[in-house]
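Let us begin with a simple case.
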Amino acid sequence: MRASDLTKSRLSRAILYIILSILLVFVLFPIVWLAFSSLKTHYQTLILPPKILFKHTLEAYKKIVTAGMFNSFKNSLIIAVVDIILALVFSIPAAYSLARFKTKFNKNIGFWFLSIRMAPAFGVIVPIYIVIRSLRLLDTIFSVNVAHLLINLPFAIWLLKGYFEELPVEIEESALIDGATRVQTLLRVVLPTSMPMIISVAVLTFMFSWNEFLFAFILTSSKGVTVPALVASLAGSMTFDWPLMCAVSTGAMVPAFIFVFVVQRYIVRGLTLGAIK
């Protein structure tokens, strides 16, 4: 390699690192600001310009426990886990059927699933609220789970359908020739090879359920309140308890970070393979 080419390569790499560093700072700054603000007093959060060095306190995190706000974290976790399980249980056989049994009806219903996911939340919250209220299920975890499943299930079906269509049919045909049924082929052949995509769908479902605000805010009031709805309820009419809001927000990010960190290699692999056609 000539000296000029080597210089250009180093310059390009330096520019790339600078751009990535700027983007990293842009992404991490709100997270760092939340974490530090949760360790301040209310007076310290109002000081401008904000001080980098300050006396730390865990008073905001103590309020989460003493005020019973920890129940909201439990509700969010239960809703997200149950939503993952139900979404996968229903979406896997539905997506496999749409991918393997090609009919005009399957093609239309597959697009219908996608159109449901594309519908804005404000467009479906009113009928959902009316149905939930008529069943007397308001302010329950079940009502939020149903609302989340209506959004997550079509999305999971569409992603898994595209992935199943890319799997070699010959593998399944070999299993069928050996005497396996369709269900056995799905459980013993298709699912093990589709695990990266299934985990990716589980992560995306978890992120939506954990961060979703509108359905939880409309359908719950006290017992079934989730973390996003809790943060909104902390906003007062005259003032904001910034340390407490930042502490709740920081605590809400921890489970999501842990979950994504554990399965991150499957996310990249699953979404990449699912996008190749």
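The second case is a distinct protein. As before, the sequence precedes its structure tokens.
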Amino acid sequence: MPNYNIVAETGEALVRLLREGMVPGMIPNSEGIGVCQPSDRGDVSLGICLYDIRRNTDIIPTERVAVGTDKLRSPSSYVDLYFMITAYSASDIKFRMLEESKLIGRAIQLLEGNSVLRGEVFGKPFSDLRYPPKIEMLDLETEEKHRIWNSTEIPYKLSVFYKVYPIEIESEKITGITRVTETDITVGQI
């Protein structure tokens, strides 16, 4: 079952997916793709920024889950993660926009082609999930994109925005229960 690490592991899964499809062909080494803030990207060529987390309103679990034979876990929480993906080129200015457009285009192709994070591809954190997370491109208005970007001090760069959902965060609250171990049935006449 997943725990609070699943938020970070989701970002890492996106990085692995993009690295598999872009390194070394478009980006020379795997360190060129990473999770970062736009204002603190270092030498990343393709940056993935988790910019929002919201409660998932489609799944509202109410039942507790059995843990062994004598314990119950409180229901999990489900959230939606919002990512901004931005390309950064160090090319000469006359080629920079074209190179960044190619990087964004390839990222879109990879994410659209892998619209579900499956355990067999992305490892153990995603293998036992009740609801495999989906990757969905967001159709945001330009003003909303600028508003998200304006939290940084650098000018807006072309970016694509994705939602990965539902992400299960397991409850840590476990309560003990007592099972019925014996019954006493008395039969008599009325």
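The first helix runs from residue 6 to 22. Residues 79 and 171 are 13 Å apart (CA to CA).
Keep these points in mind for the review questions at the end of the chapter.
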